[in-house]
Design brief:
Shape of chain A: globular
Strand content of chain A: 35-45%
CATH topology of chain A: OB fold (Dihydrolipoamide Acetyltransferase, E2P)
Number of helices of chain B: 13
Radius of gyration of chain B: 19 Å
Radius of gyration of chain A: 15 Å
Bound molecules: zinc ion
Structural class of chain B: alpha/beta
Strand order of the largest sheet of chain A: 6-5-4-7-8
Largest sheet of chain A: 5 strands, antiparallel
Helix content of chain B: 25-40%
Strand content of chain B: 15-25%
Strand order of the largest sheet of chain B: 5-4-6-7-1-8-13-12-11
Distance between the termini of chain A: 31 Å
Helix content of chain A: under 10%
Order of helices and strands of chain A: HHEEEEEEEE
CATH architecture of the largest domain in chain B: 3-Layer(aba) Sandwich
Structural class of chain A: mainly beta
Oligomer: heterodimer
Distance between the termini of chain B: 53 Å
Shape of chain B: globular
CATH class of the largest domain in chain B: Alpha Beta
Number of domains of chain A: 1
Largest interface: A-B, 20 and 25 residues
Chain lengths: 129, 348
């Protein structure tokens, strides 16, 4: 559960797709201390354009508590045009239309609600384009 | 010159047909379609609310304006379905778009008129010289009680408008507002569904305010209905806006482009603003638009816009409203619709 401090801390990457580009060229979202190839630590901030393609996907029928009302839903590993690889739900689609290689766009949606009285978490999901 | 420099709309992909709702409650679909002129309406996805709809519309407005979001000095979201009772919708939006923190933000509420209210204040800021750019948004994910006539119309969508002085695409020529205390429609705190005064929502509420505002706006501007290429009015159903427009002297051809209600439903605070975006999508330089909103409680905001030569440069920079309405559609049956809209109780 994303309590308020974490929710606030994650706003730049969840809301605006602010990512890192490491010295070796690797692009990551969310931010990390060392690049995925373990070769460098220096990075600069870049903002992803929100366009990419599906590398792989699955349909979730049984989810953790916060997501039970959202089932069934699709989750995909997406590679953005900049080369960042991220996991996101793919929404507003018929599951039959999901394909490896399908083009997607990242959009701003509600991720989950922390019960009936807690905060509402927003962030990125994907739609087929 | 002060006016709109960028506009954008958003409607969800999900739909329910009027016939599906009529089947559920045993209503006469022929009478419904003839009485309300409604075929289908938009339904928000489970992960959509006033904030996400506003963000999507605002992003389209920024694309058309082509400005740095940091230059926007005020953001106002008008809605009757803000997700939080306490915690603004606008703060989420400014952080999602990279506006601020040097920005004035407020959430507005005035039944279906909250969107035009946000536009009115945003426009006034720029006109007064208070700031270079200000954004007004109207968006809603409205609910009607199961079996209530409102269920045929209450839908989801929104529109955003950035006002400015440079690179104006539609100049604001005149504005006028008309308001009185009228108990036609309301929702008390902690209540899930609104209540309304049935037939009282017509003559003493909708028509009194739309016509009161519209007539004075025409007088003030010294214009007549035939001076306008387009007119758009708040659309609680299909019939009311066409009737109000006719009384004011407008012809069906002037109202058709902005009349989205038969395939969109009533997007409440987003209703006439979304209709305006559909008009801006096709308008030609020099053409004028007459717009009157309505919010229960009750009041109307009127605007007269005139398209500038720049309009043609921005129309294709973001998705067009009618393309979104006629594009991807996912139809829901009543059971799925009830679950989507939380009309059935789940284990918390
Ligand atoms: Zn590296």
């Amino acid at each position: 559960m994303a309590i308020s401090p974490r929710y606030t801390r994650e706003i730049p990457h969840r809301y605006r797709l602010e990512a890192q580009q490491f010295e070796c060229g690797a692009v990551t979202l969310p931010n990390r201390y060392i690049c995925p190839d373990n070769c460098c630590k220096k990075s600069k901030k870049i903002t992803l354009k929100g366009k990419g393609k599906i590398l792989t996907y699955t349909i979730i029928y049984i989810a953790s508590d916060q997501y039970t009302r959202a089932t069934p839903f699709a989750v995909a590993v997406i590679e953005t045009e900049e080369g960042a690889r991220l996991t996101a739900q793919v929404v507003d689609c018929n599951f039959d239309d999901l394909k490896i290689g399908a083009k997607v766009e990242l959009i701003f949606r509600k991720i989950m609600e922390e019960g009936a009285s807690g905060i509402i978490n927003y962030g990125y999901k994907a739609i087929l384009v | 010159m002060v006016g709109i420099v960028g506009y954008g709309a958003y409607v969800p992909a999900f739909r329910i047909k009027a016939s599906t709702i009529a089947d559920q409650w045993g209503d006469d679909i022929v009478a419904i379609e003839r009485g309300l002129l409604m075929k289908e309406k938009t339904v928000p996805g489970k992960d959509e609310d006033t904030i996400t709809i506003s963000v999507a519309a605002a992003k389209n407005a920024v694309k058309r304006a082509g400005i740095d979001p940091q230059k926007i000095g005020a953001v106002y979201i008008g809605s009757e379905s803000h997700p939080y009772a306490v915690k603004p919708s606008g703060t989420v939006l400014v952080d999602a778009l990279g506006i601020g923190p040097n920005v004035h933000v407020a959430d507005f509420e005035f039944a279906c008129k909250a969107g035009s209210e946000a536009m009115f204040v945003a426009y006034s800021h720029v006109k007064s010289g208070n700031m270079d750019y200000a954004m007004g948004i109207g968006s809603d994910t409205s609910q009607g009680a199961p079996g209530d006539a409102l269920e045929y119309s209450a839908s989801a969508g929104g529109a955003a408008f950035i006002f400015g002085k440079d690179n104006v695409i539609a100049e604001v020529l005149h504005t006028y507002s008309y308001t009185s205390d009228t108990a036609d429609f309301w929702r008390r705190e902690y209540q899930h569904y609104p209540r309304h005064g049935g037939r009282f929502t017509g003559e003493p509420a909708y028509f009194k305010h739309i016509l009161g505002c519209g007539k004075t706006l025409l007088e003030k501007s010294k214009m007549k209905a035939s001076d306008f290429a387009y007119a758009v009015f708040h659309m609680p159903n299909g019939k009311f806006p066409l009737k109000a427009g006719e009384i004011l002297g407008f012809k069906k051809e002037q109202m058709e482009q902005g009349w989205l209600v038969n395939i969109m439903g009533n997007t409440y605070s987003g209703s006439s603003p979304t209709g305006l975006t559909a008009i801006l999508d096709v308008i030609k330089p020099g053409e004028k638009v007459f717009m009157v909103s309505f919010g229960s409680g009750a009041g109307s905001d009127g605007f007269i816009f005139k398209a500038t030569p720049r309009i043609t440069q921005v129309q294709n920079k973001a998705p067009k409203t009618r393309d979104m309405l006629n594009g991807k559609k996912i139809y829901l049956d009543y059971g799925k619709y009830a679950a989507f809209r939380r009309k059935i109780k789940f284990l918390e």
